[in-house]
Write a structure and sequence with these properties.
Layout: E1 2-4, H1 6-14, E2 18-21, H2 24-27, H3 34-48, E3 52-59, E4 62-65, H4 69-78, E5 83-85, H5 90-95, E6 100-102, H6 104-114, E7 118-120, H7 131-134, H8 140-146, E8 150-153, H9 162-171, E9 176-179, E10 198-200, H10 203-217, E11 222-225, H11 235-247, H12 255-266, H13 270-296
Parallel strand pairs: 1-4, 2-3, 2-7, 5-6, 7-8, 8-11, 9-10, 9-11
Antiparallel strand pairs: 3-4, 3-6
Helix pairs in contact: 3-4, 3-13, 6-8, 10-13, 11-12
Length: about 300
């Protein structure tokens, strides 16, 4: 049920740095197929920093770790008709031979099986606004708590209740680090989030924190928040988008893509450019930390 690309398998066997990447950004994260360009740029940045990219997805009844160009094209062409696959959905996608685009949580589940220690994404899922009424909390957080991997992102998606997400990460004993910042970035913006547990200045420092954490805490992951550059302050737009999506009755996994599409429309596409850039930059940073970790032995 699990097929690992030769390049990825060789790197893991030799102890070389590998960075996992998700596929929901290809199928659900952008409109008009622009997620494909974002995924390709992320893979290029990982290679340029000296690591091997491992993009994860479910294709033709197999969990695939290390997708080729044709596979990425399939996800881009499928768009939101591909299943959004968290950890709970992987088995059904495999058994039913569905095209499954892995979320952060789904990708981390594969990382746990293969021993991949580093992942990059745009923003993680978390606690949704109004969670007290809906109990809508992303499975990303549970997988992060049970997977010994460091995830580089630009914080929790700005459509979420970010302070509540940070509180739950603390409860789950997931260290939240800031990449040269004191507060957790808020996806499009580098400011406005809660205070991080620790600030790190170099890839080597982040790698060492991760290494010591895994020696002491075992199976839980870490979050490394990198502020987007340039950033974009769109909180009023986000509030409007969330309200409109809620009013339309959208729920569950469909909320995030619906809100992001509306944000793109309301910002005249400015949010897309920021999103694409931060995904590539986060991938590069994850590779730098993975390389530093490999050098620690």
């Amino acid at each position: 049920m699990l097929r690992v690309a030769d390049e990825v398998a060789d790197a893991l066997h030799a102890g070389r740095p590998v960075v996992a990447l998700e596929t929901t950004l290809v199928s659900h994260g952008f409109s008009h197929g622009r997620g494909l360009a974002a995924a390709q740029a992320a893979e290029r940045r990982v290679r340029a920093a000296g690591a091997v990219p491992c993009t994860v997805g479910i294709v033709d009844g197999w969990v695939r770790a290390g997708l080729g160009a044709a596979d990425l094209d399939r996800f881009a062409e499928a768009g939101t008709t591909a299943r959004k696959a968290g950890a709970r959905d992987i088995a059904a996608c495999v058994a039913q031979r569905a095209l499954g685009a892995t979320t952060v949580g789904g990708t981390l589940a594969v990382c746990r099986v293969l021993g991949i220690r580093f992942m990059a994404t745009g923003g993680i899922g978390g606690v949704h606004r109004g969670f007290a009424e809906t109990l809508d909390i992303s499975g990303d957080l549970i997988q992060l708590a049970r997977t010994p991997a460091l995830v580089v992102c630009s914080g929790a998606k700005a459509i979420l209740d970010v302070p509540a997400t940070a509180e739950l990460l603390e409860t789950l004993n997931v260290p939240v680090l800031g990449w040269r910042v004191e507060t957790l970035p808020v996806f499009y913006s580098g400011e406005g989030g809660p205070t991080v547990a620790a600030r790190v200045e170099t890839a080597a420092e982040a790698a060492r924190v991760g290494l010591i954490h895994w020696q002491l805490a075992g199976e839980s992951g870490l979050l490394l928040g990198r502020a987007p550059d340039p950033g974009l302050d769109i909180e009023p737009v986000l509030a409007e988008a969330v309200e409109r999506v809620q009013h339309a009755g959208v729920t569950g996994p469909a909320v995030t893509p619906a809100v992001l599409a509306l944000v793109e429309e309301l910002t005249g596409g400015a949010s897309v450019a920021v999103n694409q850039q931060l995904i590539a930059d986060n991938a590069a940073l994850a590779a730098e930390v993975a390389v530093a970790h490999a050098e620690l032995g």
